[in-house]
Amino acid sequence: MADKTGSKVLVRKRDGRMLAGVCAGLADYLGFDATVIRLILAVVSLVTGGTGVLAYLVAWLIIPDEGQQNSIAEDVVSKKHDAWSG
């Protein structure tokens, strides 16, 4: 996906997603097949005792969904900030 200036933007893809679209979005951004990214994630998860799963969850929180301006984390932080502001 590209933004208004034509530069690439990392987003969680809706097409080709299996869970949250992180691997599909990363594959599109890097120009790889999503299956390759999924295999790399699985191997990293097995070798590191689950760190790949943690990385996936963090990516799910900080990468915005396709068509959205903000990520889940940004939405949560802005809601807390609005609640604290009064």
Task: Please supply descriptive tags for the structure shown above.
86 residues; 0% strand; mainly alpha; 57% helix
Describe the model.
It is a single chain. By secondary structure, the protein is mainly alpha-helical. The protein has one domain. The chain is built from 4 helices and no strands. It has helices at residues 22-30, 34-47, 51-62, 72-85. Helix 2 (34-47) crosses helix 3. The chain is flat and about 45 Å long. The mean pLDDT is 86.
Instruction: Determine the fraction of residues in helical runs and give it as a percent range.
Output: 55-70%
SSE run: HHHH
Distance between the amino and carboxyl termini: 37 Å
Discrete helix count: 4
Structural class category: mainly alpha
